[in-house]
Amino acid sequence: MNIKKVAVIGAGVMGSGIAAHIANAGIAVDLLDVLATENNNRNAIAEGAITKMLKVQPSPFMHPKNAKLITCGNIDDDLAKLTDADWVIEAVIENPAIKQSLYQQLDSICRADTLISSNTSTLPLSILTEKQSDSFKRRFMITHFFNPPRYMRLLEWVAPAELDPNLLKAITEFADIKLGKGCVQCNDTPGFIANRIGTFWMQTAVLEAFNHKLSIEQCDAAMQLFGIPKTGVFGLLDLIGLDLMPHILSNFKQSLSSDDPLYDIAELPPQIESMITEGYTGRKGKGGFYRLQSTGNKKSKESVNLLNGEYSASEHFKIPGISHKPEDLRTFLEGDDKLNHYVWKVWSDTLTYCAELIPEIANNIVSIDNAMKLGYNWRYGPFELLDRLGTKWFTNKLTLQQRPIPTLLNQGKSLYHTEAGSLQYLDKTAQYFPVHRAKGVILLADIKLQSPPLLHNPSASLWDIGDSIVCLEFHSKMNTLDPDSLGLIQSSIELIKTHYKGLVIYNEAEHFSAGANLALLMPAIIEKDQETITSIIRLGQNSYQALKYAHFPVVGAPSGLALGGGCEILLHCDAIQAHAELYMGLVEVGVGIIPGWGGCKELLRRCINLPKQAGGPMPPIAKCFETIALAKVSKSAQEAKDLLFLAKDDAISMNKDRLLADAKARALALAKNYQIPQETTYTLPGKTAAAALDLAINTQHLSGKASDYDVEISRHLANVLTGGDADINRSLNEQQLFDLELQAFVHLIQQQNTLARLQHMLKTGKPLRN
Amino acid sequence: MKNVIIAAYARSPFTPAYKGELAGIRADDMTAQVVKRLISESDINPNDIEDLILGCAFPEGEQGMNLARLVVHLAELPISIAGMTVNRFCGSSMQAIHIAAGAIKMNAGEAFICAGVESMSRVPMGGFNYMPNPTLYQRYPQAYMSMGETAENLAQKYHISRVEQERFSLLSQQKTHTAQQKSLLVNEIVPITTDKGQNITQDGCLRPESTAQGMADLNPAFIKNGSVTAATSSPLTDGTAAVLICSEDYADANGLDKLAHIKAVAVSACQPEIMGIGPVIASQKALQRSGLSLTDIDIVELNEAFASQSLAVLQELPIAAEKLNIDGGAIALGHPLGATGARITGKAASLLQRENKQFALATQCIGGGQGIATILEAI
Predict the structure, then answer these.
(1) For B224, which of A688, A692, A704 is closest by C-beta distance?
(2) CATH superfamily of A446-587+633-677
(3) pLDDT tens, A371-404?
(4) Which of A525-539, A627-641, B49-63, B340-354 has the lowest mean pLDDT?
(5) Which CATH superfamily is domain A5-185 in?
(6) A176 Cβ neighbours under 8 A, 6+ residues apart
(7) For A316, which of A218, A270, B10, B195 is 20 to 30 Å away at the CA?
(8) Model ipTM?
(9) CATH architecture, domain defined by A194-416
(10) Short-list A548, A543, A628, A597, CA closest to A742
């Protein structure tokens, strides 16, 4: 079945967020809530939700235009119209009677092949399907999205035995391919997988923080070592809302058996109860464990002292000498101070609990690992973390403490291992089974298990991904680009020319590339070593140009950040297959420079070729200038198309796991009858256009929107984009544009203000406006 | 020499650029509708019209080519009517009137349509391809100075406080709102019909809900820590206006209405960085040519490009409050650049009739450092 129309009932935070994300996939969606009785607008609740979502940042929408795909309505007037829906998602209040009554209405209204699902996070399938007909059970399941639906990749599903397998296939494929979700099958148990484990972990971490008399900064910093997002535990609870915790804990208390370890700890500490009473409910309230205090124009972060409930300035707590490496983590967990004891207690309890939940909540460890990675943004699933620590080391430590060993771990076997180049997981029967990948998914992580790289250096590797296509992977810190990465581009081109059909540039890190490695450039900048700076700029220009005019197709496949030099390499590709979550931009002005590796040249080409714009030489120059001078960064791949970082024909993959396969298919398609692109020539107006841009810069400066140094950078950028001394009757080639970029770059990099911007960025990660 | 008169005046509603009701309508289409109605209601034989002179400040894109001649065709006027597009920025359509008056005086025609238009939604200020002379820009950058900056310069030079500007602007809003409430603007407005058959009948820029406090809360629009805000500047506007100019003999012979004589005209120039002061010298020249003094003038239409600019002019030309912009001005009504000259001249002529007064002055400042003025006398 092809899902063309979806309906969501319930326009609360989850329902409206789900509707927005379905619209992000380009699918029409009806959003219904109860009838609004005030102001003569019967659809006011659903419409209000859309209005609110259009203002929220980070936005539930990948593009504001997606809101137009949502049709608002109300249950009284519009439920009967849902005959055209292929999938109806119920996201109403967690009340079984209300849900069951709605299901009965939907069952009589919807087509027989319409799937009806619930987004419940607390009610079991058995209660939802109680007293429902067999025919209803053939078309009903739980599809549990995580908040916010656009950004959290997990979709937990629970299905009755009676569910039509064709419907299940259609919905899970749709969720995977169109919505980009990682679908994880769960058993019908309280809180399913992620929230059961997540709540246990958070609750343990909170209670033990009180027991160990630690500061919340210490606890959160220690958690990050184990691949937990920066928010840590206390920051995450602020995000979720402290006031939700009593409901979540009481639900578990009611639904779990009394011998479940979570049952024992599902009590809210009185200190947190007091915080909730006083309005400290987290980010949506006055603050939570952390709060932001404003003094004048400055905001400062404060943390609560768990012992006395008082706030004081947050400390930036660092754990010296401990990295993410397994041996460091083991050393840390074996340490003797109270922070070491705390972290061991939290992780040993959590990992043991996870091991004991197989097969109760999930059939295998892969489901649990995926659920925690996709639903809680853990870098490693609990079993992957156990493997990193070493199961034998872990169980030995448990034994020393005379604690029971979960059955799954009692043989001390690795939880994952590689057999003949394929990844396998340990089953509850102590046997290994292959980790299943959905059809159409290629992961570089799997390819790495099969064969060594074709080329390799500390910053980049080249991998054979089959069918005569190779993959260039960056793997430096934040995938910043340096002479090693650029060098590997050049050697890759030589190899591909004779042995392969095409190249995909892709990696599986959180971010495609944060741009050039500025730290590496710093010594040359401080020394004002023009020769070195020039050679690095020329190396980047030549490498990217060589990619552009290679004898084979090059497909960029970015996800996450693609900034500066990372954006510029993509602009030189024949095509881009982008992950939907793409934050792409030429942000060089933030560090006092302009794009020097062809970013100006390539974005200008795209602006000039844009068909729908006013004629004449200025509109494309003005568009390009605005994008670079304001360091615009797309907030999605859809937005990157508006900014012309992606071309009209570039494609978007919603599921990150499918990005490499999609990019490879694109490269193969391009390889058929591939023709090297023609050299671009530019007809630019020169000084007159620079004067026009200067007037605009001056206006920005006068109004206080541009700083003194912004003006200087902008003038150099204007000189490049208008062609320097060009005349409208003479054309420039790409090399001349490269030369102008270089000239501006070398000038700016020697300025004290640029140095200050660079140093500030390297120190704080934030731009300086001097 | 022949007497030159204004026989009729009409305009479209003025609506805010981009978000107003006229944003979707081409400049030539709206002008054709107003011109067509002006002609039909004035009872002139269109075959007698010599020329259609059309002012436009950014005559490019949809406003490009020779817009005036194209409007002749769009308005289905006789093929014999010539067309000339005139650009003196904000003074364009007042200049169109001056050209027609001069032509009539030298017996180069009996009747002229003098119109003006600007779709600031569809052709941006500065045009699509703003390309200043780089040498002049370096040597004399004020030749290209932005209008907001010039308004700030006048506020500084004439010590005009932000509060004074806001008071002036609030008064403009109130006068325009009152005029609208009393239906005093209805007769001059020609409804514009969209291609979907919708009729646009009302001015849309007014902000009758404006308050002194609301204005005081706004950020400066052009210069950080400056005094000029969006509330004390005329808004970007779409609109068109037209007047019928002919010799008095022709009007008499053909039974046309006679709103006013054109008694004297003038243009002047000043430093570009204080372009807003332009009306002072232009008005003084016109007064001198008409043999009148400022105190003889009963009705003044002074275009409100900015409150600071208008207040600076008023320091040099002390005009009694009850004579000034009595139905409000551009701060409230809007300022479609090329159309404003025809609007304020036509408005001054019709006010002479309505208020039963003798002399009127219509004057405005012009970007780049110019002024333009027209003195009218009731018939």
Answers:
(1) A704
(2) 2-enoyl-CoA Hydratase; Chain A, domain 1 (3.90.226.10)
(3) 999 999 999 999 999 999 999 999 999 999 999 9
(4) A525-539
(5) NAD(P)-binding Rossmann-like Domain (3.40.50.720)
(6) A182, A183, A438, A655, A658
(7) A270
(8) 0.91
(9) Orthogonal Bundle (1.10)
(10) A597
